[in-house]
Amino acid sequence: MSKELSRPKNQIRILLLENIAPSARNVLLNAGYTNVHEIYSALDQAALIEAIKGVHMLGIRSRSQLTEQVLKAASTLVAVGCFSVGTNQVDLPTASALGIPVFNAPFSNTRSVAELTIAEIVMLMRGTFKKSINAHKGCWLKTAIGSREVRGKTLGIVGYGNIGTQLAALAESMGMRVIYFDRFNKLSHGNAEPSKTIDELLAKADVVSLHLPEQSDTKGLFTEARIRAMKQGAFLINNARGSLVDIDALVNALKDGHLSGAAVDVFPNEPKSNKDLFESQLRGIETAILTPHVGGSTEEAQECIGEEVARKFVEYSDVGSTTGAVNFPEVQLPKGTLVTRFIQVQRNEPGELGRLNDLFARHGLNIVSQHYQSDGHIGYVVLDVCGAVPNCVDILKEIRQLTGTIRARLLNRV
Question: Is 151 part of the annotated catalytic residue set?
Answer without folding.
Answer: no
